[in-house]
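Table 4 source record.
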Amino acid sequence: MTSTQDSDDDRAFKDLNVVGMLHQFWQQKQVNSSTTETEKLVVYESIPSPGPPFICYVTLPGGSCFGNYKYCYTKAEARRDAARIALMNSTFNDLPCRRITPEFITRSIEEAVTTTSGNMEDVSDPSTSLGAYYLMLKSNTGKTMLEFQELMTVFQLLHWNGTLKAFRERRCSRQEVISYYSEKRLDECLRSHMALDWLQRERKRPGLISRELQLALRELAQARQAGRELRFYKEKKEILSLALSQASTEELQAYCGEEKEECWRKGETALAYLTCGGHCLETSVTDPLEHCEFYYLECGSDKESLG
């Protein structure tokens, strides 16, 4: 493509009100689903910067997040580009091939068996990686892959944070963990728990949070520039930033003790619910989910749609 064609495409793109189109798309989806809440359908977040490149994130209903793909010279341009990426993914996600059906589950499981050198007998056993993956797919039948990815983000974060390892050590079964967290939203309490875990690690390894945060920022930038869904990377950055902001406060010890004890007492943590002598986990609950991105992008046109 020539530079002249690029300029023409850019001008045509600016003429489109993609921000309004994205809002209208999700507003119509809520009308079709008989949902009356229309406020904050789409949330934009511009990253403060003294100059270009400007960065903007857009979060959709349900939590999926996208960012601007291009090098943007203005905040308005970054906002439009983020909206464009989100709109492309939103409309593409509505295609029949993006919905989890029995046929889709069968194809995914067969591919998982080939990829992991497993066997079909494991499908009926939730204690295996393949069985856990099948259970999650089956329990989300009818949902789109974007909705499934939103659920997977929770398990990705639990795996990254070491929470799933703690469940394994407490002999919680995969089925119990999946059942519990499939109904649990990624909220401030869950983020706070993860931040507190990183604060405790910081005590033993000073500087750990700063290093992890720099890594998370690089991963977020790379994913944004590749036009990928960003919720997992952005949540990592937010959790680590929260932990870093608390790392040097004088109330750190009291905060770690009292806050965690209070949340646990109220039942906000899953350990009180899940520590019930279940089957021992031989591997992380997220073993099948580590391949989630592969299945999420299994249609060859996915990556092309983002560029």
